[in-house]
Amino acid sequence: MANINVQDYRKADYAIDDMFLQRWSPRAFSDEEIDEETLMSVLEAARWAPSGSNKQPWHFVIARNQEDRERFQSFIMDGNRVWCDKAPAYVLILSDREAGGSHAFDAGTAWGFLSLQAMKKGLITHAMGGFHKDQAREELGIPEKYDVHAVIAIGYQDEMEKLDEQLQEREKPSDRRKLADSLTEGTFKE
């Protein structure tokens, strides 16, 4: 939908597959529903993420009907609600602390796989940390052994002009700092 040229905002320092540059987190969601096969394909990709000792500590709570979406919207903060209410699906990502030390790392990897598969299926995703975790835990009946990480809005992209003006200004792919700024060799250096 959006006429944004990602190459105007993102350039890799080294050769990588274009999908890594093409994936970004728009806020302009269409309310078009996602068919079962497509949504399950996105979650299937997340299932195949690597995990420490193959413990697969992730758990996904999905909301794709009106009642469930409203339940999720009750704990999403207002700053995110202004753009995510139209999204036809949400996924709450959890990880089982009892699976060991890499549970959160593994759940994050599953989110990465989910986001790339969604892009391959013509969908957009936007992860949100701006939600009330305790309220989500209570509202959805999540046991204490699970860490609550992020709510992911999933859907089809709409025209950015449908967003509030201040959100339109932010509706573009973000760049990344140089690899050299995140990398040291041999020992840690800031």
Automatic annotation (TrEMBL):
Domain Nitroreductase: 22-80, 83-156
Top-level taxonomic group: Bacteria
Pfam family, one: Nitroreductase
GO molecular function per UniProt: oxidoreductase activity
Biased composition (Basic and acidic residues): 164-180
Residue segments, region Disordered: 164-190
Chaperone as UniProt keyword: no
This protein's record includes keyword Oxidoreductase: yes
Keywords for the protein's UniProt record, in alphabetical order: Oxidoreductase
Family recorded in the similarity comment: Belongs to the nitroreductase family.
Name of the protein: Nitroreductase
Species of origin: Gracilibacillus halophilus YIM-C55.5
